[in-house]
Amino acid sequence: TKRKFFYIDSKNTVEVSMMSKNINGSYYLDKTKRYSAMIDRFDSYGVVGIFILPDFDSDLKTLVSDFTIDDLKQLVSSSISMKVEATIPKFNLKQNLSTKKIIIDMGVQDVFSHSCDLSGATDFPVFTSDILHSANIEINEEGVIAAAATAILVNTRCLKPSLEIVKFIADRPFLFLIYDQKNGFPVFISAVVNPN
């Protein structure tokens, strides 16, 4: 790990801890949408980390606005297994989200009502006030550490081999995904604009 510059945009840089490592991963280059991607296998269950880096003459905003689930599936299915000399910043992503509105929009409303009968859960008169979800992803020298938790707040009523080695240097904003290859969907997506 070395301190290096991360180029937030053409005018702003920050000094970050950049990790360099040769990995047996996969690489994908899309010349039409102007990005490259590295896939790092995290475990034997088919969960991978995908780093998607816009070309130098493009930007993350353009990539995100044009990127579709079909692009992601194409990336995963067409990537080439090879050694990748990866240089990526250490980063930690955290998100806390209230899911109450999402759950109500899905049609589950009664549980948030004061008249909901939750007597099987406790002897006290309670109702659900919110359901919170928290996710934490940390990328460091050890690999990826991912944790997620959901809490229900109850109140009382009063994620062909090649010999070639490709360099992948994520020293500017990129997308990071944790992707479940077995089931074919992303379990986590984030834009890393400033690793600090």
TrEMBL record:
Pfam families: Serpin (PF00079). GO terms for cellular component: extracellular space. Residues 1-195 form the Serpin domain. PROSITE patterns: SERPIN. GO terms for molecular function: serine-type endopeptidase inhibitor activity. Belongs to the serpin family. This is Alpha-1-antitrypsin-like protein CM55-MS (Trinotate prediction). It comes from Henneguya salminicola.
